[in-house]
Amino acid sequence: MMRSTTSADATRGKRKTVRLWAAVFWLLLWQLLSVAIGQKILLVSPIAALLRLGELALTAAFWRAIAFSCVRIMGGFLLAVLIGTLLAGLSAQLAFVRELLFPAILMMKATPVASFIILVLIWIPSRNLAVLISFMMVLPVLYTNLLDGIQSTDRQLLEMAKVFRIPHWRVLRSIYLAQLLPFFRSACSISLGLCWKAGIAAEVIGIPNGSIGEKLYQAKIYLETADLFAWTLVIILMSMLLERLFLHGIDLAVQHLERW
């Protein structure tokens, strides 16, 4: 019997990867611009940025800063995933909850990140600022995508399950989860990059001691352009790595669910 294509297989097939030639093109362009400008204080070369990154990686402060920011930003992300999932489920079942949350979700989407950061700094210490800002940036994305996924669930399948008295746990696994996972995966893919951008922006403004945001702020104050680019590369790499790991975990969960 021919094996049907699973949702995880389809998702992996659509996954975009960075082509080597494209990466080389942009690195060469960066190098040419650096040579043309001829001012290291304005734009360092990619080689200089990588060398500085290597120097920083040999220090304990470098890894402490990564751990500090990673724990808080990913903590805010995971909290948003949990609460966003619960709220989406409640909103799908109860119209008054959906109507009650609509203005708050709309406000979170429309309010600039800087406004949130400045306002939140009045209430909580800068040390935990990235947690709340990451949470507030991710929650609307997770909530909206999951609510759309629940509302687009095939009603005919649900009616069929009701007629044949299929157990609730099997309906949840075979119908709801199967149709929600693509929405959930897409929301997580978008949100992981967004929470890192928002979390680091919060740290740059709040300047908590020992954070990546503090390192970026110091690089700007002391005009250490190589440090600025090195830490920016760290942020990009951490965001990409954690996104790949998290999405790979979702794909493994889908495979396990389909075998269950």
Which key features would you list for this structure?
11 helices, mainly alpha, about 0% strand, about 260 residues
Fold blueprint:
Blueprint: H1 7-14, H2 20-37, H3 46-57, H4 60-93, H5 95-110, H6 113-123, H7 129-151, H8 155-163, H9 168-206, H10 212-221, H11 225-259
Helix pairs in contact: 1-11, 3-11, 4-5, 4-7, 4-9, 5-7, 6-7, 6-9, 7-9, 9-10, 9-11, 10-11
User: How many DSSP H or I helices?
Assistant: 11
Number of E-state strands: 0
Q: What profile does the largest beta sheet have?
A: none
Topology pattern, helix = H, strand = E? HHHHHHHHHHH
* Shape by Cα distribution: elongated
Could you list the spans in which at least 5 consecutive residues all have pLDDT below 50?
1-13
Structural class computed from helices and strand pairing:
mainly alpha
Provide the helix percentage: over 70%
Question: Explain this structure to me?
Answer:
With 260 residues, the protein is mainly α. It has helices at residues 7-14, 20-37, 46-57, 60-93, 95-110, 113-123, 129-151, 155-163, 168-206, 212-221, 225-259. Helix 7 packs antiparallel against helix 9 (168-206) and helix 9 (168-206) runs parallel beside helix 10 (212-221). The longest helix is centred in the C-terminal third of the chain and has 39 residues, at 168-206. It is elongated. The protein starts with 6 loop residues before the first helix and ends with a helix. The model is unreliable at 1-13 (pLDDT under 50).
